[in-house]
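Hi Y.,

Following your request, here is the sequence exactly as I used it, all 407 residues.
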Amino acid sequence: MIIPKAMSAPAAERAQLLDALRGFALFGVVWSNYAVLSVWMFMSPEVKAALPGAFLDGPLEAFHTILIDGKFYSIFSMLFGIGFGFFLAKGDDGLWRFYRRMFILLIIGWLHLRYLWAGDILFLYAVLGLLLPLFRRSGDRALLITAAALILSPIVIDAAVILTNARFDPIAPLLQAMEAQDALYGNSVFDAFLALPEGGWSEFIHANERGWLFRFVHLVESNRPPKVLGLFLLGLWVSRRKLFADVEQHANRLKRVCVVGLLIGLPSSVLMWWAESQVGHPPEPSSLIRAASYAFSVVPLAMAFASGFALLWRSDPWRSRLRLMAPMGRMALTNYLMQTIIALWLFYGIGLGWGTHVSAVVFESIALGVFILQVLWSHWWLARFQYGPFEWAWRSLTYGKVMPMRK
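Below is the corresponding structure, written out as tokens. Let me know if you'd prefer a different format.
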């Protein structure tokens, strides 16, 4: 079976299946991010309970934790590693171009993190992406072992925190910095976020001045860096084995990954949902349960979703449906940033100010609507242009010349 090549960067290397899978990952990303961008995550239980549709908050939170939380950014991270494999195939020239791309992404990510939204992931991707060339000569077995060790490392880190009674705690210096920042401003960073829906540009600038440190605290607290790097390496291994380049040839292996991922991931996700409600700070035994259940749920389920997606791609009726998400995946950077910009307009006082006024069922419905609109818009845009707006800028800066935009 020949998979038609997509026209994103680099056009000749990216299969349409991967673009569609990237679009699918963006669906889970917008669902996850809008829980934070709507400020719902920072609201007290009493305020949440008073919102229209709040009776659905419990079931939706369980659904989100079990099937959404972490799974789709994991797919996105794996696809990042696959993309790095494409650059390696081009030799030294491709490697240096990869470095340039990461440096530009670092700048984009920092601007997004510092001036738009504290939940940015691009900055972390760029920082960790710069480490990927260190593994380009590692064997396949070494890649898998290193990836597994990194993905499971949060269990060891949380165990060390508990066993030392928090004397070893990587988050402690950042928490102290955030507490000092709170004292300087006279309120907590959570209060700054909660003021966004009713405030204007002054509150928005104030929250962004503090949000980047909060983001660093969250990334370290959730042990995100080693997990993301592990997923990058897993994606590099997938790229080497060409699992998604010829789905028919690798169908049996993909079926095993799907079945094993579901058998391990689903029970672990249910356990994670229970542990999520028990975790406090400093770490308790329940936080260790959460770290273990997270490790054994998120990546197995992400791999199950991705392999299941690839297996459905073999069917002509399913391929025609799944292909609808390919243009969105080709414009992944643009659509990711636009999800933030749309949310700022919808939920913050610089726009409509809906934040703190919407329950889970409302912001999840909004997220679904944004995703559908982005799918339609991506089709319209790529019918006329070769790249998404931010992809065009990223590619032009990478190659050091203005790339042709119109088809």
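Residues 1-14 have pLDDT under 50 and may be disordered.

Thanks again,
Q.
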